[in-house]
Design a protein that fits this description.
The structure holds two protein chains of two kinds. By secondary structure, chain A is mainly beta. Chain A has no helices and seven strands. Chain A has one domain. In chain A, strands 3-2-1-7-6-5-4 form a seven-stranded antiparallel sheet, with no helix packed on it. In chain B, the strands form three sheets. Chain B has a five-stranded mixed sheet. The longest helix of chain B is centred in the middle third of the chain and has 21 residues. The chains are: A mainly beta, B alpha+beta.
Chain lengths: 84, 409
């Protein structure tokens, strides 16, 4: 099932062709390698533009990461790990 | 030639594209799956079970218990819809969004139907590669044919029709399949012996005029595949006709204070949206749906245009109090129509006795512009706290505090 979260996470990020791309992040003591960014979108909150990334991990798990430029900080906002 | 690009089961397909474990599975997009509500979208895998948009979630669970129930994310869908419009705009500047998951793409009069069909195939492939989404595309010489053709083959279909092809394809079909003929109109048409689109095309014009007024002859023209509605590119923009918000309550409720608090919250969201987009309106409509699913709409015209929450709420509450009999409610909605651009109404404001109120409103809007919608809200609208899990479209859920990772209060 999907877990709704607000977990601050450290994210290794690349900037390619002027675009931000999360590569790996640390969550619950382990490093998750981003295999694929399957979608991205933005949401405005006041004057800040939050960037969301839907990413696939090493296995079947998927995550939603959010970059908040006000920190700047990264937050893991949703996860599906297959766990019941 | 014009294309109508219709994204297949858009919201559910986006979730499947973003989450591989959902692909090939029945997916139902809804509000908070832990609470009651209605189905927002059903994937094609869920549809054979009889699940469709607008159905109660409890009914969907009974029909398709094995489906994945996913909480929808309207902002994500709108953002993707805009990305799709950007893609269409690489073909032509003549792009008109028709809804969040449909858009007309004007290819110009020199493009043949065969070439339009080729472009549709290329576009369909690009959408699949870039977004992982399916689209059904209709092509035709006008918006009517493009729109109706898109519905003929779904999902991932492409149908190109000229006027002759349109008549061949649609004349044998039931009249309710005509764009613009709703269920009630279809019943009235059938009572006149108009059973198919072909019957409508051949119905005597005076009969249609008498029965349906000006719409009758227009529908007869449409039944021949004729339509001269212009395509309005979205960069030119079309002013909104109304703005509204509604919410399905987490449980049926007959508690007056709670319901009026919810009404205030909706009025605040509507008024804020009017102001931020530079509109004022003068018709307030309240929508209420009771536990038996009976829906009532009541509206009132105001003496002056407004974008002021207190004024909208004053009239919405009066309508609510007139029509609510103490029943348990399921859904509340507020909308404002009769919109005008604010500049025209600013003249009235010069003579308004409520200058302090206007200044306060501007200051509060400034805070929300900077910190987000949930940063300042009317205190009396917080009666829902602790009872409402679902955050309606337009409101902003709590964000993590800077550096702390905990939700802001």
């Amino acid at each position: 099932m999907f877990e709704s979260l607000s977990d601050p996470v450290d994210v290794l990020t690349a900037f390619v062709d002027g675009r931000m791309q999360p590569l790996r992040f640390r969550w619950k003591g382990r490093v998750v390698r981003v295999r694929k960014v399957s979608g991205q979108w933005v949401r405005r909150e006041g004057s800040a533009l939050l960037r969301y990334f839907s990413v696939e991990g090493g296995g079947a798990e998927t995550y939603e990461l959010c970059y908040d430029p006000r920190g700047p900080s990264w937050v893991l906002s949703r996860a599906w790990t297959g766990a019941k | 030639m014009i294309l109508l690009v219709d994204m297949d089961a858009f919201f559910a397909s986006v979730e499947q594209a973003h989450h591989p474990h959902l692909r090939g599975q029945p997916v139902i997009v809804c509000g908070d799956p832990g609470r009651r509500g209605v189905v927002t979208a059903a994937s094609y895998e869920a549809r054979p079970y009889g699940v469709h948009a607008g159905m109660r979630l409890a009914e969907a669970r009974r029909l398709c218990p094995q489906a994945h129930y996913v909480e929808g994310n309207p902002e994500k869908y709108v953002a993707l819809s805009l990305q799709l419009l950007d893609l269409y705009s690489t073909l032509t500047p003549d792009v008109e969004p028709f809804s969040v998951d449909e858009a007309f793409v004007g290819l110009g009069p020199r493009v043949t139907l065969a070439r339009a069909e080729e472009i549709a195939h290329e576009l369909q492939r690009t959408i699949a590669q870039r977004f992982g989404l399916g689209a059904s595309i209709g092509a035709g010489p006008n918006k009517l044919i493009a729109k109706m053709a898109a519905g003929l083959q779904k999902p991932r279909g492409i149908t190109a029709l000229d006027e002759e092809g349109f008549c061949r394809a649609f004349w044998p079909r039931e009249v309710r399949e005509m764009w613009g003929v709703g269920p009630k109109l279809a019943v009235r048409m059938r009572s006149l012996g108009i059973m198919t689109v072909g019957d409508l095309a051949h119905a005597p014009e005076p009969l249609l005029q008498e029965a349906f007024g000006i719409v009758g002859p227009q529908l007869r023209e449409a039944a021949w595949g004729r339509d001269d509605t212009p395509l309005v590119p979205y960069h030119r923009g079309v002013d909104a006709k109304s703005m509204g918000h509604e919410v399905t309550l987490p449980e049926d409720c007959s508690e007056a204070a709670y319901l009026e608090g919810m009404l205030l919250r909706l009025c605040d969201q509507v008024a804020r949206r009017l102001r931020s987009e530079g509109f004022v309106g003068r018709i307030v409509t309240v929508k209420i749906r009771d536990r038996r699913f009976e829906t009532t709409l009541r509206q009132r015209a105001l003496p002056e245009h407004t974008a002021d929450c207190a004024t909208v709420f004053h009239h919405a509450r009066a309508l609510w109090r007139e029509h609510w009999k103490g029943d348990e409610m399921r859904l509340l909605g507020v909308s404002v129509s009769g919109l005008e651009r604010r500049a025209a109404a600013d003249q009235q404001e010069l003579f308004s006795p409520d200058q302090r109120l206007r200044r306060l409103e501007r200051a509060l809007d400034g805070v929300r512009d900077r910190l987000g919608e949930a940063s300042v809200v009317p205190a009396a609208s917080l009666t829902h706290r602790g009872r409402l899990g679902h955050v309606p479209f337009g409101a902003v859920p709590g964000r993590p505090a800077r550096g702390a990772g905990k939700p802001a209060s």
